Amino acid sequence: GLQNNVFLTQIYETRMKWAKPYFMDVFCAKMTSTQRSESANHLLKGYVPPGSLMHLFVRQYEKMQFDRDSEESYQEKRTKLVKTHHNDMSPHAGWCCARSEPTY
């Protein structure tokens, strides 16, 4: 049975580490896991009617993902890249590091 499957046993033992890699590309500014869950549920309810059949749920979930990704891409494209210019501190840093004792 599955209880004796070495691979499944090993990955089940590391289950506490699953969520971070899965949500690695999702920014959730200081939201708790409960807040993220409630937010996801609210979003999903806009796509999937209660009591839906599994195939409809999957289809609508994929549509929700597509819509979110499209909106994210649109926002990324319309956001202007701000370039900043920094003075090169290398000569100054080299000069500071070369001194044997600090002088005040």
UniProtKB/TrEMBL annotation:
- Localisation: Nucleus
Task: Name the predominant localization.
Answer: nucleus
Q: Name one GO cellular component term.
A: nucleus
Tell me which InterPro entries the record gives: FHY3/FAR1
Which top-level group of life is the source organism from?
A: Eukaryota
Q: Which GO terms describe its biological process?
A: regulation of DNA-templated transcription
| Keyword terms | Metal-binding, Nucleus, Zinc, Zinc-finger
Q: Care to name a GO molecular-function term for this sequence? A: zinc ion binding
What family is this?
Belongs to the FHY3/FAR1 family.
Its annotated function is as follows:
Putative transcription activator involved in regulating light control of development.
What is this protein called in UniProt?
Protein FAR1-RELATED SEQUENCE
Q: Which organism is it from?
A: Aegilops tauschii subsp. strangulata
